[in-house]
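One-letter codes give the sequence; backbone shape is given numerically. An example follows:

. . .
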Amino acid sequence: MRPSISVITPVYNGASTIADCLKSIGSQTQACEHIVVDGASNDNTLEVVKKFRHVARVISEPDKGIYDAMNKGIADATGDIVGVLNADDFYIDDQVLAKVADAFDAHPVDAVFADMVYVRPQNLDKIIRYYSGANFSLGKFAYGWMPPHPTFFVKRECYLKYGYFKVDYRIAADFELLARFMVKHRISYYYLPRVIIKMRTGGVSTRNFNSNLILNREVLRACKENGVATNMLKIYSKYLIKCMQLVSRPA
């Protein structure tokens, strides 16, 4: 039977961008359960959300940050498969969830991930960086590299078995969760060779030098907690890959 999909959108004061996210989910040919988790926004985020009838549920209350919001949505989800799409991001076309469901149908795996591109906030057609999951291997976690988390869809039962996002991580809880699932617990996965998400540049992990320091310290911690042998020199070498992503483009 075709798997059901839940998509979680965490948001806080995202009125200026969330409409693109909501439109991209509402237009999907594959139906999904869309749960918006709002951190008690003080702009008109909720007014924007109310315009989209496909949204199954809205949770609006103070939280401990984006990973806490993701956890709330995952705990509320009922789909066989769970994905996360942040308020600044959007699916590249109306076939994304159908392609993801097809991949789970065709391959007996726990998770599916794909490719994504970063775009300019002022010009959503201008690609700045191409983040591909094509050459992923488990050994790359040691170099601070993981599959593109926004493209990561996983069976809900994996969260129930292996835990949710760790909210004491400030920036790298997504890296820790993927390392825990994929390295420590060896879940099975399939790479979908397709760009499925556009992400606006300007995320917290790339905001400034201090954010990068926090990120890489947390990556080191995540590796240690999940049995990945590494060091800071290896982790910082990932920036060579990122430089290549600036010039690489989807075929």
User: Anything to note?
Assistant: The domain at 5-247 is CATH 3.90.550.10 (Spore Coat Polysaccharide Biosynthesis Protein SpsA; Chain A). The two ends are 33 Å apart (CA to CA). Strands lie at 5-11, 33-38, 55-60, 81-84, 89-91, 111-120, 123-131, 153-155, 189-200. The chain is about 35% helix and 25% strand.
